Every structure is written in structure tokens, then in C-alpha cells.
Amino acid sequence: MLDDFFTRALVTGIGVAIVAGPLGCFIVWRRLAYFGDSLSHAALLGVAFGVLADIHLTLAVLVVCIGVSLFLLLLQRRSNISSDALLGIFSHGALALGLVALALTSWVRFDLMGLLFGDILAVTRTDILFTYVGGAIILGILILIWRPLFAATVNPELAEAEGMNPMRSNVIFTLLTASVIALSIKIIGAVLITALLIIPAATARRFAGTPESMAVIASLIGLLSVTGGLYGSLQWDTPSGPSIVVACVVLFAISQSPLGRLLSAERRKASSGTADERAPR
Prior knowledge:
CATH architecture: Orthogonal Bundle
Oligomer: single chain
CATH topology: ABC transporter involved in vitamin B12 uptake, BtuC
């Protein structure tokens, strides 16, 4: 079954979408889209590092993304430069440095468009293994830290007063985000990774009554986007990564349409959640 390239692409894409949904919710709640961009652009550095160190590219991207994310957290705490300026510097600087580093590895030929915009149709069985084992670990850790991380998202001071450790939760969340980006680079590319994290979560926000339901709906929307994007790519011979993002955007547009508002109203009538249970807006 996995001998077929399209089946491998579909299985891998679904695995990433399921993991990206819950993490994307926290990115949306915390308004960290630019942070995701910075890490995704740093993924190109990871590719160059993987070539130089002769290790699996997913592992190399993971190591570099984790290093960059921790360095960013350190700078945000100690620098007098605003966070958005730091993220802007890192986002564009990492992208440029990664492209230069790849150009210097002249003995290896790269599919630059594939790195930037994804080449999910080229995934291997090893990529599927990395995706599902890594994804299971990420989801497991996220479930363990869900309560303190959500509390830190809503009100860090109150979370700390209740004996939680918001800083530790934030660091773990940053590492999980870096891990998802490492898993996603082959699927949707360094430029478009953040879209798979943000757009399904933003779409799910309209239909969710609780944080947990928003996470589940975001995963389902990501799954539909991957499936629709891949079949659309196959039908119209379009690039797979951008096609997945286009499918995400179409679902988001539907959620903002009169039909989406009607479905949202029906969903909220059926929901028994209280105001305290609702996801942050």
C-alpha cells in the first residue's frame, strides 16, 4: 500500500495535520505567527547542517530549530529590542543565511523549490516513521502540559500564583513548535509551514466552544486541507505544498461566509460549554 507515492504523501500529510492543529491553536491564541515564521525559515539552515554533518534532514532541521528557538527566547528576555523587531530580524536573516549556506554546499544538488514550498510527493517510508513517532511524542507532551500552558496563555500571573510554572511551559511549547516545523518541511516547505499551523486553527476558532474542541476541529480541518490539496494537485497538476495551503484558505473563507456563520450559530446553540470554558479570542 505504501509503495504508491500518493498514498505515502497522504498518510504523511494527515499525520502532520493532526499534530499541527492543537499547536496551531496556541500559536493563534498567543499571536505568535511571526515566531513560527522565524523557526520555519531557520529550517533551511537545518537542511545545510544535515548535508554537512551527513545526518537525516528531519533530525538536522529539528536540532537547528530547537537551537534557534531557545536563542530567541533568551534574546527576548535580555535584549532591549522589541520582540517583533527581533523576530523580523531572525525571520529574514535565517532565510537568507539558509539560502547562502545551501549555495555553498555546491557538491550537493538541491531542489530549492521543494525546500521552500514542499515536495510531499517525494516522502519515503522513513519520513512516515519520523512523522508518526515524532507526532505521537509531541501530542503526548502537549497533553501533559495542556493545563499549565493554557493557564499561562490566558493569564501568566494567575498561573504562577496558582503554583504553575509558565516559563517552563512556554519553553516546552517552543520546543514542540520547533519539532512540528522539522516534521513539516518536506511536506509544505519552509515558506509555507506556518500556514498549516495557523490557518486551520483560525478556521476552527469560529466553530469551537472550548479550547479542547478547537484543537480537535483544527486537526480535522488540517486533515481536510491536506486531503483536498493533494487531490487538487493531482487533478490540476499544481504544486502540492501550495495546493494544501490553498485548500486551507478555502476552508477559512467558507468559515467566514454566511454559511460559516450559520454553522457556527448552530454549533454554539448545541454547545453546553460555559463562558469560562471557551477558547481565548
